[in-house]
Amino acid sequence: MDKIDVAGKSRHQKASRTLWAAILTVFAGMSCHSASKPVIAVIPRTTALMLWESEHAGAVAAARKTGYAIYWNAPTSEDDVEKQIAIIKHAIHNGAQGLILAPDQALALMVPIRDIVAQGIPTVVISSPLAIPPGGKLSYILNDEDETGRIAAARVGMILKSEGTVAVTGIDPDVTGIVLRANAFERDLRVGFPRIKVVDERAGGFNIAQAQEIAEDVLAKNPHLSAILALNSSATRGAFLALQNERLFGKVKLVACEQELVPPLTTGQIDSIIVENTYQMGYRAVQQIAAQRRGEAVPAEVKLPPKLVTRENLNTAEVQQMLTMDWSGSR
What global pTM score does this model have? Predict the structure, then answer.
């Protein structure tokens, strides 16, 4: 019996060594294959948000078709500008052949982006612009903020039946796109729905706890508020939690910008979300960098229309592609 056990154990150990050798061979082959591909650095404002994971999925899908590998990294917080700059420099130092950036801050990113473009590295800024004109190796693929503001005003006007009060939260002067979004909303609301008044406007960064406190203060100071427009994902989460704590779902309508908290759409706790097409931003940005590396001309600036997502259209193919976070299946 002992001899049989020893032999069995020996055969098991041999089989295990063979299996691990095979696994290591596969991983070695994958590593060599990946190392042979030129790399495009894709650096969003942060990771682990649907807004940016959709960009990740689009970038990986395009990279697979164009023969590139993706380096994906970002700060853990959207207001950590120094960390984003450090990640950019690390990626370029390690040989990235292109850069796709969603800037955390409009002014602070100007100098490093100018330096990278001066090195001849194709760079695509997505979602929100910098104060650098496109041209040469720098191009933009942006969300159409005028359209976002128009959609938001039309939705608020419709759900309030053209009369009521609205608060705007999440105004961030450091992110140009959000400022343009807020201005467009107020302009279109004033023209199209003059009996709806903006009674409160609040700044807000990317801290959810702070965003919740701001929303709770807005509700306390405006007891007859009809609706909230949340301009970014953190403001959306903060407003949602405040409405939940105050048991105001249904009484105060929540219209959100930037895809986040999609499930509450189905219950009506969030009225609607105006979604940026970050999937297409990532996809097209990789295509443009690949084209520039081939010596081809690319558009200096592209604006992609956002989409109003409601309970009624949430499960359509168009919306589901915009919301996908399945980047691993695109490899």
Answer: 0.85
